[in-house]
């Protein structure tokens, strides 16, 4: 469905490049929900925004993003915008707060789907709103008249009205209370299960929320992947020291490791304008070795997982 290969996306700033996404490779399969987790500033939003909403000061240094055989990095902005909503749709962070306050939901839908929709889009919107437990008269309301949970569901309905192959949802549950979080996660899973979308990329710093719906989980640290694999395995038996520390810091998950437990997550993530040499996690890693400081770990395959850590390279 989607293949991202060695993607490097930096921000150009007056003091040099910020290496926000630095050599990220993964695939998204048909029917899959891929969760992306990691601390604030690990590059999650930059990665998913660049896929379908690239804009300055983001600069692609290397890599490709292949969707249905097309490298999205080599097409024009006009061609990319044709794929947006119909092929790959994104709900960026804070989208529910960015709805135009002066327009009713009906007008917002009309603006976004103009020239792209077939059939009666309003009837379709009404039907989808009903599916997610909202009355059809939401179309007549202004965003300000809706609660946060209602607004987030409306945004997700609008973003999927044209039945995209891929939905990218960035922190769509973080501003909601626990009950509403669950409702939104269930809604996303039902979109996949009923074929409204084929695959979903769900970004969240809340690993427990991802665990509820994701088939696979990808953990990012300082612009790179630390570990990616089936959700049960990544959460239940994390391999990368960063994943372990991250999961250890979430008591809700109640994980019992098969091997020695590491202690919490100490220290701060590095500044990505001048990241550490070798493994970027080495200054915080309690089991770092000399080679970790000197050289970047290559990807190591462990069962269905890929882990970026010298401990698993077999060398
Ligand atoms: P969060 O969960 O807080 O959204 P994130 O994991 O999504 O974090 P990004 O927002 O992608 O991370 O940020 C990755 C890095 O890029 C951070 O170091 C951030 O400071 C930097 N960054 C983001 N936007 C810009 C920008 N416009 N100019 C310069 N640096 C930026
Ligand atoms: Fe720790 Fe080394 Fe693995 Fe990095 S490569 S996580 S520093 S053991």
User: Mean pLDDT score, rounded?
Assistant: 92
Q: Measured on Cα atoms, how large is the radius of gyration?
A: 20 Å
Bound molecules: adenosine-5'-triphosphate, iron/sulfur cluster
Strand order of the largest sheet: 6-7-8-3-9-10-12-11
Helix run count:
10
Please provide the ordered H/E string of secondary-structure elements: EEEHEEHEHHHEHEHEEHHHEE
CATH topology: Rossmann fold
Low-confidence stretches: 254-262
CATH class, named Alpha Beta
* CATH homologous superfamily classification: P-loop containing nucleotide triphosphate hydrolases
Could you explain how this protein is built, in words?
With 315 residues, the protein is α/β, with parallel strands linked by helices. The protein has one domain (2-87, 162-312): P-loop containing nucleotide triphosphate hydrolases (Rossmann fold). Helices cover 29% and strands 24% of the residues. The chain is built from ten helices and twelve strands. The strands form two sheets. Strands 6-7-8-3-9-10-12-11 form an eight-stranded mixed beta sheet, sandwiched between helices. The protein has a four-stranded antiparallel beta sheet with strand order 2-1-4-5, covered by helices on one side. Strand 9 and strand 10 (224-230) form a beta hairpin. The two termini are 34 Å apart. Mean pLDDT is 92; it is low at 254-262. It binds adenosine-5'-triphosphate and iron/sulfur cluster. Adenosine-5'-triphosphate (ATP) binds at residues 11, 13, 18, 20, 38, 40-46, 57, 93, 205, 272.
